[in-house]
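B., you asked whether I could sanity-check this one before it goes into the benchmark set. Here's the sequence:
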Amino acid sequence: MAAKTRQFTVAAVATGCFLAAAAAFAVLGGPIQANVPMLICAVLAYVGLAQVEFEIGPVSTSPIQAPFVILWFAIDPHALPLVAGGAELLGYLVKALRSKSALTRIARGSVFNIADAGYSFGPAIVLFALAPATASLDHWWVYALALGAQFGVDWLSTGIRILLSRASAVPASQFLWTWSIDAGLAPLGLTAALASADHPWVALTLLPLAAILAQFAKERDERILHAVELSSAYRGTAQLMGDVLEADDAYTGGEHTQGVVGLALDLGRAIELDAREMRNLEFGALLHDIGKLRVPNEIINKPGKLTDEEWAIIKLHPAWGQEMLDRVGGQLTHAGVIVRAHHERWDGGGYPDGLAGEDIPVAARIITICDSYSAMTTDRSYRKGMSVADALAELERCAGSQFDPTLVAHARELLAGAEAAKPVAPAPLRVVPAAGIDDADAQAA
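And here's what the prediction gave me:
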């Protein structure tokens, strides 16, 4: 069964079950009494607030909880699911007509939206059993229990629908985002409900909230779009600078840099860096050697060992890189801090600032490991690259001195694969013992 067909089938069955259960509850509950003016105003407020949709965390929601609470008091509890289903449908129809959707799409969407009102059974059952004769704040615990029942039924009904539609469960955290909004709006709805008993129009005072939230949602979307466009511009600038570096030196800007970027991003994901840290890590890894554009080509491309004077010039490239990125500004300024620190050592013996331990930005510590690993495993004109096992052994030998030992452990798990389960004999050192990886591969790393 195709995914869309399966989803529609599940939604249709859920809608049928909801309508049958809501009708049975309304009939079996006995005669229905309602405060009609209050009911009309609450439904209008519900439909109005349903037009507003905003994102919170990984989900989107509408601020319908406040008018929904008013519905608790506008009609007998055993009729609440039918009324909530109708309000949900009206809200969707108004939104669909405003967006000029096709009739077939509106009909299909209606099936999905009616079933969304399944959450209303939670408060309906609690209020049917426990609702006091007179609404007041003295019975706040009943209303809190009704709200908790709403969340429980929402989790159960929506979770089952999604599980049947996708064959995958929904993380509880996604429900928590929506519930946090509902929990915040519920007291507002309760206050309006108590006032609406004598003044039904009070429910309509919630409508300005829809306008305010709609404006906030619009401005947020515009800021996100602007941030995405700006990020794309910075990424394009970074890529352009990387291309310039590649044109200047095929190894430093091409195979080596791209290898470092890929490994760094994999390691960043492994330690669960957030989106901003991942962006800065990407730019820092892409441009970690950008300062070498200022280093004379005869030093960069020298096949033999560097002299002390040449090595002193090479050691200036992290600071030069930061200066270049500071001139671009914006997001690349953050990358510049990382670029400056990518040759610092865990034990404080690096350059240019002699930072140690966690004083070194985590992105720079990641790049240091990936930079050295790439340098060791890549073939050069004057030597063949190490094997993965030998390179990992060398990273472990330098863990705690040159490299962050925790990150080295993550790198081993990430890179070794099946090799990690096998004991690896220490590799013959391919570096001068007192010098470390930096000196042996000054041009590469």
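One thing to flag: The beta strands are 54-56, 59-61. Otherwise nothing jumped out at me.
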